[in-house]
């Protein structure tokens, strides 16, 4: 089962890599996605609407709700279990009320043990918003 999951993720990621990102629309705000502690963070929903390209958000000025999918591994138990980490899938929602046209933002998802977090940063690195809701499986 794990092999099929990894194969599916590889296919999904290879499809994303082969398609270039569109040019940012200067009348919209652009949100890059990043993680340093997880495997994958992808745009899932913008204002309750499913995204067609999970590599970024491009939003109109004003207030929006962003939901990302965040996949990461958790190591549990004694030394014998460190070779088989448990995979976690989380959906993280955050709101930000003041997206500006032509601006770039960065949404960073991270994990600490079984907990997942997300923050939205300005281009200057200032924290603008953090997660409002986190739902994880298993």
From TrEMBL:
Residues annotated as signal peptide: 1-20
Keywords: Signal
Protein name, as recorded: Lipoprotein
Organism: Pseudomonas weihenstephanensis
């Amino acid at each position: 089962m794990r092999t099929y999951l990894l194969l599916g993720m590889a296919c999904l990621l290879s499809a994303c890599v082969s398609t270039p990102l569109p040019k940012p629309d200067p009348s919209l705000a652009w949100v890059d996605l990043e993680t340093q502690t997880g495997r994958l963070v992808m745009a899932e929903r913008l204002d309750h609407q499913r995204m067609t390209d999970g590599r970024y958000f491009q939003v109109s000025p004003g207030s929006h709700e962003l939901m990302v999918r965040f996949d990461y591994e958790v190591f549990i138990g004694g030394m014998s279990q460190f070779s088989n980490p448990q995979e976690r899938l989380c959906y993280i929602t955050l709101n930000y009320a003041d997206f500006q046209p032509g601006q770039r933002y960065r949404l960073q998802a991270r994990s600490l043990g079984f907990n997942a977090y997300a923050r939205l940063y300005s281009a200057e690195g200032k924290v603008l918003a953090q997660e409002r809701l986190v739902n994880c499986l298993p």
